[in-house]
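Interim report, section 4.2 (structural modelling).
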Amino acid sequence: MSKTIKLHHGDGGVHTNNLIQNIFYKYFNNPALLKGGDSAVFDINGSKLGYTTDSYVVKPLFFPGGNIGSLAVCGTINDLTVTGAMPLYLSAGFIIEEGFEISKLEVITRTMQEICKQTGVKIITGDTKIVERGSVDNLFINTSGVGEIIDGYEPKSIQAGDEIIITGGIGEHGGVIALKRYELGIGEGLKSDCRPLIDILIKIRDYLPFVKVMKDPTRGGIATILNEIAKEHKIGILLSEENIPICKEVKGVTELLGLDPYYLACEGRMILIVRQGYGEKILKIIKGIDNCKNASLIGRVIEEQCEYVCLNTWIGGKRRLYMLETSMLPRIC
Amino acid sequence: MSKTIKLHHGDGGVHTNNLIQNIFYKYFNNPALLKGGDSAVFDINGSKLGYTTDSYVVKPLFFPGGNIGSLAVCGTINDLTVTGAMPLYLSAGFIIEEGFEISKLEVITRTMQEICKQTGVKIITGDTKIVERGSVDNLFINTSGVGEIIDGYEPKSIQAGDEIIITGGIGEHGGVIALKRYELGIGEGLKSDCRPLIDILIKIRDYLPFVKVMKDPTRGGIATILNEIAKEHKIGILLSEENIPICKEVKGVTELLGLDPYYLACEGRMILIVRQGYGEKILKIIKGIDNCKNASLIGRVIEEQCEYVCLNTWIGGKRRLYMLETSMLPRIC
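Predicted structure of the assembly:
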């Protein structure tokens, strides 16, 4: 490992994992953390709770489809949701640069409250720190969240034949940030997919016994998340490129900038791995949910005792998708 | 309110309160948050939990008696403790500047783990974000924490006659930060008082029915905290200057820099307001705890239906201590 922190230590890929393993897991060495899920799970007098945190450093703070506040609330809600927890309470910590406009802070705060209202989640504790000009880039927000695990839900072991669902088009959040960052003036109409995923969890509740894993493909995109699943469960995954929903604006942006949509962050999508034979049933429910009409069965688990993610491409070839090796786009969330 | 954020919005005094009232409470408007305690309290299937968060932006990162990691763990543990909650689980979110030395990150992480081990608290969820050079000043840490409220504990209404205890010397953390910040080369031997307060809660457990309020006097020092209590409970407080423990190093630093020790942060002290007649008994227990031998009965509640904090000075006069109006020392935690 290098002697200093590099930007790639934050991209959610190989280098992030190295930093986590070599520093954080080395010291904060307890079973709940080492499970490495989107949320830790703990027990209080028989109640199973999910607990998670994320800091948000997105640049720019405002983008089509949301702002740092919507990311901060949705991101933490979603990390609880994919653990099978109904999100209940959040904390919010603001670190603000001297000189930041209070009117912008108000817009961000209002956005956070709108999502809380929509989801029934409450921000019940918070903190504000102000630092001198130049000591932080405008505004960073940390949120943590607590939720109650839905009775009896737990991730299950994955087998060959299991089916993979994505709840909507990929790369839209990453695509929007790239457009804004490079001021390209193209991709009109592209919006971040940022949204809370609670409604999906509620709607598929009766099918949870057949849901083996839920994940939100944020930093590193679907390629990185699926590689993590392949590694953890020792499985081989085959995706079908023609079934992966990518809107034309994301295609345009990624072609222009040489970005790979499979590695671009989503902030309001869920990947589900479900028991063989249940994919179509669960997909049908999800397609009926707002903003999920492009949900799709994108592939399946084809092999056990190996670790890879492969793509059947449009032109009939096969492409291996590896863990993210290099930082494509820092500060996407 | 001004149009932009000023440094004084973060000093824990009048301006911080204005920002919280006008922005955060306006939108995040729910009873648990509006109570404004050190931790929010919520109920899960009959279990009462405390929940809190703080971001740490202290400058410098390392100081005699601790580092940003010890503050981040102790600060959140203490916010739970003074709410009457036994701290159980923490989250930790790191925002790190590109180029930061990994060896320093390791020292900070190890310190955090040492305090966790000592207290039985576990960091079970975390997050790491890396930002480009110049986008954050070295390293910021957010911690949140969850604890279980000790059976039956709740803050009680305060009456004239109630007694006020401080568990040790004041201003030591703020004093150390001032010394390091201005590179004064004096005050050798002064260390931050940063420590977890759990042992105090455990030792006085049998007396909790007689403990009306517990607070940790961090940003804004004992003067600000006592003013907040005076305002919330509509009481007048009289302190005795000769009973307030201030070590000679803190006296030296504050005289040299023109700082007021009553407004300097402590990071390992607790203020307790206890029922009349129980002050001496509880003080005796506290004085037997490590690092608490200078604990002292510093004053009492002398009046109801008014809101002030007053000091009987050494020379026989009276001095009114107001809420902190101006920022003495930004980024002390």
